[in-house]
Amino acid sequence: xxxxxxxxxxxxxxxxxxxxxxxxxxxxxxxxxxxxxxxxxxxxxxxxxxxxxxxxxxxxxxxxxxxxxxxxxxxxxxxxxxxxxxxxxxxxxxxxxxxxxxxxxxxxxxxxxxxxxxxxxxxxxxxxxxxxxxxxxxxxxxxxxxxxxxxxxxxxxxxxxxxxxxxxxxxxxxxxxxxxxxxxxxxxxxxxxxxxxxxxxxxxxxxxxxxxxxxxxxxxxxxxxxxxxxxxxxxxxxxxxxxxxxxxxxxxxxxxxxxxxxxxxxxxxxxxxxxxxxxxxxxxxxxxxxxxxxxxxxxxxxxxxxxxxxxxxxxxxxxxxxxxxxxxxxxxxxxxxxxxxxxxxxxxxxxxxxxxxxxxxxxxxxxxxxxxxxxxxxxxxxxxxxxxxxxxx
Length: 393
Prior knowledge:
Elements: E1 4-9, H1 10-21, E2 25-28, H2 35-47, E3 53-56, H3 60-72, E4 77-81, H4 84-88, H5 93-98, E5 104-109, H6 123-126, E6 134-137, H7 141-155, E7 164-169, E8 177-182, H8 185-191, H9 218-229, H10 232-247, E9 255-258, E10 265-269, H11 274-286, E11 291-296, E12 298-300, H12 304-308, E13 316-321, H13 331-340, E14 348-353, H14 363-374, E15 385-387
Parallel strand pairs: 2-3, 2-4, 4-5, 5-7, 6-7, 10-11, 10-13, 13-14, 14-15
Antiparallel strand pairs: 1-8, 6-12, 9-11
Helix pairs in contact: 1-2, 1-7, 11-14
């Protein structure tokens, strides 16, 4: 089948990417704003265009355990969730990662209760950051589709063998329609061959999976998982380069740097808000301001080398968090600061917290952030964690 273009939303882009990747087992439990993904996949299975075992489970907990079992049998799997559903999966997430099963899952980022809301921020996925999954954040529907295909290539690499979570901003991206290039099946099959692994249950070659380990050996398992994880960034960058060569689109690997080479102030972002910031950078550059954008595409593995390679011209780095680690600061800010602490001349940093529950962040807001970064006094003792768009300031 040759490639074509279609006007689709982010959820549909994910579903089409999954279809092109040909998973053998799909575990489905609908939750807003992820539901369209599993609905579309059920249609593909029903009409015969996707040959896959579609399991409509009774909960998100069952969904993660179903793909765990299927992956342990050596087949390609997919599931999707959001918000409270992701939290309901928590017990199963470290089983999948500790067992080194390359499950691919889409998470539609949504507020976690309470207060209840169906709109977007990143508190759900960042709450499970330490459970051993690769975490990727996408900006638009095209990147969503392309990264599903890349996700399987990354996760199933024998040197990686680690589950991967693709995060899409709820409604802002999951339900927004745009024109997307959909590659042909033949080209995807060439890029992504069928999954083959020795890490599986087999009557011919019996082995144990999800084993127990006491104090004498537990550290060795964790050390192996950590050392392997620290090499995943190389695989991500290589897969992106191979994808660019075959499909003509590149996303930069772990990060995308935009006007960072000579920037004096840089803003770090994740997800769909990046598009707005890019437009603001263009506008401010024309006005003579030396500002730049660093799009953080992966939170795990964290792009340490890319952070350390930022030019010494950067005086201040702002981090936009759509989350709060209550009692301290934004989770992304903590990670960025930790990375930058290894730099000999570390720039000053400021944490902006906003976009919670989908509250709009305007271009004017971003211009104000950049202006604040450009005039920031690093010797100041003022609090560097700033909530934006507060009504009662």
